[in-house]
Specification:
Distance between the termini: 65 Å
Strand content: 25-35%
Number of strands: 20
Structural class: alpha/beta
């Protein structure tokens, strides 16, 4: 199999500058370090393949990992950490410990690049990567590599394990990439507000909309009116509550001053799975965004429909607090008897239309049966625009743009 790494190519051609320090957790034989050495970048190799081979039967993997990593002076701060596909074979606990061990040599803005498997067939061991040309690699299942248990981390689990690293970019299913291998960039303590999208997301690749035809495009009139105020100002701020990966946000980013993607549903559900009450899980998820200044527009999509009336009221109150006076909240209300398995994914296109990916219905009954019920949970917001239509599945939707009015 071959895999063209757009992430590593972007590092080499767009991000890394002469003198950047590179930490490569893969084996030296891969061949990528030569490209960075030619840029006068000091490169450090840790080779976790050797760690796996030497510690297949180790009782204490944390102690073994600490012994394997070479101690470095704290004055050495890495600009980039290359993980290849190795995080797929470390437990969430061991990933967190790896970050802890690396922490003295990390700095705000350190980038971590990782390749994550998504296919149905779990690999038995890390792939052997061999550079062919221009960041295209031959990937092979080498029987000389040790068999290691595949962990199958979700994006949410991975982000939690990486601690102070925040997801900043994703690259998925581009021509030349393996279809079962996603690439992620994580950024360490960037100093930017949580959720802020980095500049240069033209290379973001969608997973859900490859080959999608125009029949799944929506013309959302209320969304268009909500974004008008953001389009008029180069310093406008917009919050998108949808997922950070699996869609291309470049078109939306070009229309606004600053874009923040919060992936609220994933953050809230992670809290719920830990046993937190629904309302408390929502408040806890928002704590990560406490420092985020109020914005001009918040795009909530169909998120509210996945929460009870009580939970939705807490959620909308917290969203309202992140709006400037006169700011706008855009929501979609989808009429279904049963909830989908997860919120739909919406992707704004360059022509203003929106592509939507819907998911199959689950077993849970819908929380809201009509528009009036959801309007009752919207605190101190006045209607500023509306629209309606049908989703690609045929489900009816109503869209609302609501304005935060000033309190005297």
């Amino acid at each position: 199999m071959q895999h063209h790494s757009f992430g590593l190519a972007a590092l080499n051609q767009e991000i890394v500058q002469p003198g950047y320090r590179i930490l490569d957790l893969g084996p030296l034989a891969v061949g990528s370090t030569q490209a960075f050495l030619q840029m006068n970048c000091p490169c450090y190799i840790e080779d976790l393949i050797e760690f796996f081979a030497d510690n297949q039967h180790a009782g204490d993997l944390k102690a073994a990992l600490q012994e394997h990593l070479i101690a470095k002076p704290e004055k050495i701060k890495f600009d980039v950490v290359l993980c290849w596909d190795l995080l797929n074979f470390l437990s969430a606990e061991l990933i967190a410990y790896l970050v802890e061990l690396l922490q003295p040599n990390l700095k705000p803005g350190t980038l971590l690049h990782a390749m994550i498997y998504t296919g149905a067939q779990a690999p038995q061991r890390p792939a052997k990567f061999k550079l062919l040309r221009d960041f295209t690699y031959e990937t092979a299942d080498d029987p000389e590599y040790p068999n290691v248990a595949y962990q199958g981390h979700s994006t949410v689990t991975l982000m939690q394990s990486l601690g102070r690293f925040n997801l900043s970019n994703s690259l998925v299913k581009r021509q030349g990439m393996r279809k079962d291998l996603f690439e992620y960039f994580f950024e360490y303590d960037s100093g930017a507000p949580a959720g802020k999208v980095r500049a240069g997301t033209e290379s973001d690749i969608t997973t859900y909309f490859s080959g999608t035809n125009s029949a799944s495009a929506l013309a959302l009139s209320a969304l268009d009116s909500a974004l008008q105020i953001a389009r008029k100002s180069p310093v406008s701020r917009v919050i998108d509550c949808g997922p950070r990966s699996g869609r291309n946000i470049a078109a939306l980013q070009r229309e606004v001053g600053e874009l923040f993607v919060l992936d609220l549903h994933a953050a809230i559900q992670w809290r719920k799975k830990r046993g937190e009450d629904g309302c408390q899980a929502i408040r806890a998820a928002f704590e990560k965004f406490a420092a985020l200044d109020p914005c001009d527009v918040i795009l909530c999509w169909d998120l509210l429909g996945f929460y009870s009336a009580k939970e939705a009221q807490v959620l909308t109150e917290l969203l309202r607090e992140k709006l400037k006076p006169g700011g706008l909240l855009h929501i979609l209300v989808c009429k279904r008897e049963r909830l989908a398995q997860r919120p739909s994914v919406f992707e704004v296109q360059g022509d203003g239309c929106v592509l939507v990916k819907e998911f199959p219905q689950g077993e849970e009954a819908a929380h809201f049966t009509n528009l009036a019920e959801i309007i009752r949970v919207l605190p101190r917001l006045q209607l500023a625009g509306q629209g309606h239509g049908k989703l690609p599945s045929g489900a009816f939707y109503h869209e609302l743009t609501l304005k935060k009015f000033s309190e005297v």
